[in-house]
Amino acid sequence: MSQTIIKDLMPKDELLASGHLACPGCAAPVAMNLVLKALGPQTVVTLPACCWSIIAGPWPQSSLRVPLFHTAFETGGAVASGIKAGLAARGDTETTVIAWAGDGGTFDIGLQALSGAAERNEDIIYFCYDNEAYMNTGIQRSSATPWGAWTTTTPTGEPEATPKKDMVSILAAHGIPYIATASVAYPVDLVEKVKRARTIRGTRFIHILAPCPPGWKTQNDETIDLARQAVQTRVFPLFEVENGRNWRLTVDHADEPVAPYIRRQARFKHLTDEQVERIQADVDDRWERLQRRIDCGT
Amino acid sequence: MKKVMIGNHAVSWGVQRSRVEVISAYPITPQTQIVEELSDMCADGRLPARYIKVESEHSAMAACIGASAAGVRTFTATSAQGLALMHELLHWAAGGRLPIVMADVNRAMAPGWNIWTDQNDSLSQRDTGWIQLYCETNQEVFDTTVQAFRLAEQINLPVMIILDAFFLSHTSEPVDLTDQEIVDEFLPQRVAQYKLDPSDPHAFGALVRPDAYMEMRWQQQEAMRDTLRVMPEVDEAWGALTGRRYGAIEEYRTEDAELLLVTSGTITSTARHVVDARRSSGEKIGLVKIKMFRPFPTALLRSALAGADRVAVLDRNISPGHGGIFAEETRSALYDVPLEDRPTLFGYVLGLGGRDVTPSVIEAIVDRTREAEAPERQDLWVGVEL
Ligand SMILES: Cc1ncc(C[n+]2csc(CCOP(=O)(O)OP(=O)(O)O)c2C)c(N)n1
Ligand code: SF4
Ligand SMILES: [Mg+2]
């Protein structure tokens, strides 16, 4: 039986150096590595405060082999807009400018600047690697934290009380040319989406689920498996949206129950079976809404 | 070419002549006409810049930071609440050594809402690492705008050009718009020493540990020290081309003066009239205008003020819990002057929130400073207590 080696399918550029400072088992550098492979060296990255500010390495080092501009937490969309304009002002319209932000920098404090950039349809790709909390500052909740989760600001006695914000719908409402969700467990799908995004002009948004062992209270070697399970349980479906419409799934999604996915993460260990059922109901509800959008093509 | 124009448009024309490449701005009274005029200039081709119409001042500064890091000449303008909203990013611009130029139209901070002039907005940003240049006339506004880009790019620090709300921003005066060829000679296209360049990748702004952070702040301070030398050189180079020069401070009729007024902004023009009138009746009085507030021209001020008997500093601002800010900084500049040469300093707080500072207000200050035995306090509130 012939075997497909995923590594052989990946672009050969190595733009993330070894020796970066992520925790063992962190999905965030895996995501960056795949994205840079897909984009190639003619790329400029701006990085608002997040775990990646540390992963990238302290001065005078950098784990990226492309230009990197560290910036204030809430400014990803605006700084990327400025970099693009600056390069274009001197005739460089080819370099891909990306913002690379966490869920806090995207869903919360950076939402205004991102919305501004999206509404102006700036020619940038905005990546959100989503580990579902403020990890850099020690696991505080964000509006991407799922219902029921423990974080250091949502203790088990009073866990996260609201469901995860539907960021993709917010971006879709801006009508930007391209939105995708992606997963480190589906590298071929991820790289294809990024390559596709690179050929499109205007604001593109790519949302990548990035499991975090210390924040999710999981084992280091579970990360990729968890990311896959998030897709197969439909907790984090993989799809694309063009111009705010044409919603389309990009991989087959099994219909696995969420309970095993939830139960292996100790950030949910305080939840009762009824509460896990509630998560299942919410996942089903979101999936149904997604299906309706796919069916009617809007 | 001479044109009659409001101060706000003098800024816009300075930006046009400087061939700015990226503008990013957000409206706020009384600054808005600066960026409206720039939109027209970009639309009708007078200025082929990219104009990013952001959703806040915060993003205006963030976009300027990005564009400046990409190596091009950038500009924004704001006032009061808008400037305050930018605060974190002002540090980012200065610490990142980005030569961004911004005009701030001095407007009082709310609450209560007040659109009229005072200096608390810009002075609240004193320690963000921006060079601050205060202007007195619309001509000076235009000239300072062009000079600011050369200074910023030579020293790798951002520059704030400051003009009074309404007294300059909305008041028409003739302005000599220096020909483009002359400006081009004075201010060639920016060549960034460091920039975001995929063919030469570097990281900017990464984590710096205690063993190196301090050296970076020291380099910033060295750049500020260099500015004390470079700002007058830039001013002189412009003067050689246009005949107009301003200095970091200006001494006006200070020869053998016993009493010196210290002013900034448009109050200076009013004070000049008072000095002229008093001089013609034989009083030994003069005026020192502070144009450059950061870096603070300590040595220049010391030599301008030492030897006078009394100094009256007119502050259109207040540091609550301390005093008028120009007075406090001037007082500390005088500390090293030997006692026998050290003037007594009177700090007057006046004109906040756009309250008019008329010649008779300044006349009363002159008389009081002359007659009082000593200042009762470090801040004397004109029109409130006096
Ligand atoms: C204005 C501001 N507020 C707070 C912080 C502190 N801060 C730095 S990173 C961070 C959390 C980042 O969370 P997220 O964007 O989800 O990225 P992660 O660290 O989880 O990868 C916070 C709160 C900051 N740098 N700036
Ligand atoms: S805390 Fe989580 S997201 Fe941050 S580096 Fe560690 S594993 Fe990665
Ligand atoms: Mg996070």
- End-to-end C-alpha gap of chain B: 46 Å
The oligomeric state of the chains shown is: heterodimer
Major β-sheet of chain A, in short?
Answer: 8 strands, mixed
How many beta-strand segments of chain A? 8
CATH topology of the largest domain in chain B: Rossmann fold
Unreliable segments of 5+ consecutive residues of chain A: none
Number of helices of chain A: 12
Q: For the largest beta sheet of chain A, what order do the strands appear in spatially?
A: 2-1-3-4-6-5-7-8
Q: CATH homologous superfamily of the largest domain in chain B - what is it?
A: Thiamin diphosphate (ThDP)-binding fold, Pyr/PP domains
The greatest interface between two protein chains, and residues involved on each side, is:
A-B, 46 and 42 residues
Stretches with pLDDT under 50, minimum 5 residues of chain B = none
What is the end-to-end distance of chain A?
A: 41 Å
Walk me through the structure.
The complex is a heterodimer of chains A (298) and B (386). By secondary structure, chain A is an alpha/beta fold. Chain A contains twelve helices and eight strands. Helix content of chain A is 38%, strand content 15%. Chain A has an eight-stranded mixed sheet with strand order 2-1-3-4-6-5-7-8, sandwiched between helices. In chain A, a hairpin with a 2-residue loop joins β7 and β8. Chain B is globular, with a radius of gyration of 21 Å. The longest helix of chain B has 33 residues. Chain B folds into two domains: 241 residues, 3-Layer(aba) Sandwich (Rossmann fold), CATH 3.40.50; 133 residues, Rossmann fold, CATH 3.40.50. In chain B, 41% of the residues lie in helices and 18% in strands. Chains A and B meet through β1, β2, α4 and α6 of A and α3, α5 and β9 of B. β2 of chain A pairs parallel with β9 of chain B, so a sheet runs across the interface. The complex binds thiamine diphosphate, iron/sulfur cluster (SF4) and magnesium ion (MG). The site of iron/sulfur cluster has 12 residues of chain A, from α3 and α9.
